[in-house]
């Protein structure tokens, strides 16, 4: 450690970040087991045990929240995650470097837009009051569709936004893994008569399989954490029945209604589910012969 001391110095900012923003806030978990009162402080608030969890699981809203969260999280897992792999594979097949760089830039740029901008663009495109898509439908003789307030269209629009905004950015790790594939494997396979599809199936995908498994396990850890901004901005009175998820519920009861302990219990429930999913998926990956995350 002394020999490489200057390398360890570079770790200090990251270590401080994780201590301050990740580990110290974990003491706040205790709030889920007490009836927190701001005027009493953290240590003097009365201890209530599992009271908030019992209330949460008995709430009629619990099953609605669980259903909506699972629906969106599952769509994210089976649509968004594979889409990032597909884009990486397609970009990897592009041989002209300038064209490849240009396409990469275009698919990366949306990641740097805030969700406010993305939802604003969606509003401009899909609103019935002068929206581009509805105006085109009207010109073609079709009835206008209320995309933004239609419960059936809420989830597809949500996934479409995720794909447009972050799918390109999600390809970075996969492209890095693809860059490490031995070119000699492709040359040997071509000499044996393998076409592009067989190269992809027998060399490319097996070479990045471990990376796919690790990223899938990490993504399962955030299975219940859908993010707040996008869903909050897309939610309105007409689609709330399918749009309300744990993240927006925590905001509503925790910040708007001041039920800090109750919302902390909801957040802890999400974290426990994420932990179980990570441990379970890592165990299955190990059983299947993959490396896993530990």
From TrEMBL:
<protein>
    <submittedName>
        <fullName>Protein lplB</fullName>
    </submittedName>
</protein>
<feature type="transmembrane region" description="Helical">
    <location>
        <begin position="103"/>
        <end position="126"/>
    </location>
</feature>
<dbReference type="Pfam" id="PF00528">
    <property type="entry name" value="BPD_transp_1"/>
</dbReference>
<keyword id="KW-1133">Transmembrane helix</keyword>
<feature type="transmembrane region" description="Helical">
    <location>
        <begin position="199"/>
        <end position="218"/>
    </location>
</feature>
<dbReference type="GO" id="GO:0055085">
    <property type="term" value="P:transmembrane transport"/>
</dbReference>
<feature type="transmembrane region" description="Helical">
    <location>
        <begin position="167"/>
        <end position="187"/>
    </location>
</feature>
<dbReference type="GO" id="GO:0005886">
    <property type="term" value="C:plasma membrane"/>
</dbReference>
<feature type="transmembrane region" description="Helical">
    <location>
        <begin position="70"/>
        <end position="91"/>
    </location>
</feature>
<dbReference type="InterPro" id="IPR000515">
    <property type="entry name" value="MetI-like"/>
</dbReference>
<keyword id="KW-0812">Transmembrane</keyword>
<feature type="transmembrane region" description="Helical">
    <location>
        <begin position="260"/>
        <end position="285"/>
    </location>
</feature>
<comment type="similarity">
    <text>Belongs to the binding-protein-dependent transport system permease family.</text>
</comment>
<feature type="domain" description="ABC transmembrane type-1">
    <location>
        <begin position="66"/>
        <end position="281"/>
    </location>
</feature>
<dbReference type="InterPro" id="IPR035906">
    <property type="entry name" value="MetI-like_sf"/>
</dbReference>
<keyword id="KW-0472">Membrane</keyword>
<keyword id="KW-0813">Transport</keyword>
<feature type="transmembrane region" description="Helical">
    <location>
        <begin position="7"/>
        <end position="24"/>
    </location>
</feature>
């Amino acid at each position: 450690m002394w020999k490489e001391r200057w390398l360890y110095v570079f770790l200090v900012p990251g270590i401080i970040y994780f201590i301050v923003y990740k580990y110290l806030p974990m003491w706040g978990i205790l709030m889920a087991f007490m009836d927190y009162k701001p005027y009493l402080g953290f240590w003097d608030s009365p201890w209530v045990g599992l009271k908030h969890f019992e209330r949460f699981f008995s709430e009629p809203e619990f099953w609605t929240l669980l259903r909506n969260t699972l629906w969106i999280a599952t769509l994210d897992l089976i649509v968004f995650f594979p889409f990032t792999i597909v884009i990486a594979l397609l970009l990897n097949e592009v041989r002209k470097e300038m064209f490849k760089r240009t396409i990469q830039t275009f698919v990366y740029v949306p990641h740097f837009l805030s969700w406010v901008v993305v939802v604003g663009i969606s509003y401009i495109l899909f609103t019935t009051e002068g929206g581009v898509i509805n105006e085109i439908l009207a010109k073609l003789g079709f009835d206008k569709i209320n995309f933004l307030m239609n419960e059936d269209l809420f989830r597809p629009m949500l996934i479409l936004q995720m794909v447009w905004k972050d799918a390109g950015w999600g390809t970075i790790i996969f492209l890095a893994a693809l860059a490490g594939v031995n070119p000699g494997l492709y040359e040997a396979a071509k000499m044996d008569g393998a076409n592009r599809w067989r190269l992809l199936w027998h060399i490319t995908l097996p070479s990045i399989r471990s990376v796919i498994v690790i990223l899938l396990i990490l993504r399962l850890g955030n299975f219940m954490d859908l993010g707040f901004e996008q869903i909050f901005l897309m939610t309105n009175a007409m689609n709330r029945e399918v749009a309300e998820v744990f993240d927006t519920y925590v905001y509503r009861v925790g910040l708007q209604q001041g039920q800090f302990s109750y919302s902390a219990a909801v957040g802890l429930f999400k974290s426990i589910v994420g932990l179980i999913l990570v441990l379970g998926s890592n165990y299955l990956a190990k059983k299947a012969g993959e490396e896993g995350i530990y």
